[in-house]
Amino acid sequence: MKILFIGGTRFIGRRTAELFVENGHQVAVFHRGQTNAPLPASVQHIHGEHENMDDFRETFRAFGPDVVVHMLLMEQGDTTRMLRVFRGVAPRVIVISSVDVYRAWGRLLNTEPGDIEPMPLTENSPLREESYP
Fold it and tell me: 91: which residues sit within 8 A by CB, 6+ positions away?
């Protein structure tokens, strides 16, 4: 199976991409190229900005993903862009995100009291105390 990750060079995305490769799938990762992620050598890297995904529609189509795993959906505009770019390109999109479960996100949005959490977040970072939104 061909799997295209949007994001996927950090945190849960990197490990998820690795697991797909370990299970025999062909993986491509669309990312900015700013994180030197230790991904398997077989992973195809497509460098670009998330906001400019429309410019990569034909590149994505050429890869021919069976599924897109999107790690960066944050707002309605992101969802609209994703639907526009991948309609007719991939039959299925899976959205994975963990940003909202961590207290750091609530503090960044000023929905939870306290100072900004130290980065990077890890699996052991404190969880949110308030639901979002």
Answer: 66, 67
Helix (H, G, I), strand (E, B) or coil at 35: coil
Residue type for position 38:
P
- Tens digits of residue pLDDT in 14-41: 889 999 999 999 999 999 988 778 899 9
Rounded distance between C-alpha atoms, residue 105 and residue 110, angstroms: 8
Q: Which of 4, 1, 27 is nearest to 93 (CA)?
A: 4
The model's pTM is 0.75
Cis before 133 (ω within 30) = yes
Strands 26-31 and 44-47: parallel
- Note whether 79 and 73 are within 8 A (CB): yes
